[in-house]
Structures are given as structure tokens and as C-alpha cells.
Design goal:
By secondary structure, this protein is mainly α. 55% of the residues lie in helices and 0% in strands. The chain starts with 8 loop residues before the first helix and ends in a 9-residue tail after the last helix. The relative contact order is 0.12.
Length: 82
């Protein structure tokens, strides 16, 4: 399991720095949202996904195992018609 899931200020600072030029460089836009706010949300979502997936897909599994894990965990009623 992960030692720490909640992002700390250092994580947010590092992610803010990484995001600073990304939107403009990769997407040709300047975000109206503060980079620190985006960074905190990116880290929050990443932590949530890692926590949800870890019991089913350990980080030691190969990347190809991800799709199979999604299929194994899928709701069997998804797409069913009545």
C-alpha cells in the first residue's frame, strides 16, 4: 500500500511548477484557473485513483493488466437492456 496518499505542500508546489507552462505549450491556451488549484486537483484525483485501484491492480503488474482489471471489475448490468 502507499505510504502517503494525501498530497502535501511540496507535491502541490512541484505539480504547480510542472503545470505552469503545460497548458500554454501543449494546448495553446492560458488557463484562467490558478495553477496551484489545478495542481491540487490533479494530485487529489491521482491519489483517489491509486487508492481505488491498488487492491485490484498492484503497481507491480504490467500495464496491459489494467484493461483486464477493468473488465473483471465491470458492473455486469452495464449496457443491459430490460
Amino acid at each position: 500500500m502507499f505510504e502517503r496518499l494525501l498530497s502535501d505542500a511540496g507535491d502541490i508546489d512541484a505539480m504547480t511548477a510542472a503545470l505552469a507552462g503545460t497548458a500554454e505549450r501543449l494546448h495553446g491556451i492560458v488557463s484562467r484557473t490558478d495553477s496551484a488549484r489545478i495542481a491540487a486537483e490533479v494530485l487529489r484525483l491521482n491519489d483517489a485513483v491509486r487508492a481505488a485501484v491498488e487492491p485490484h491492480l498492484p503497481c507491480s503488474d504490467p500495464p496491459g493488466a489494467y484493461l483486464q482489471a477493468l473488465l473483471d471489475l465491470a458492473d455486469s448490468t452495464h449496457g443491459a437492456t430490460t
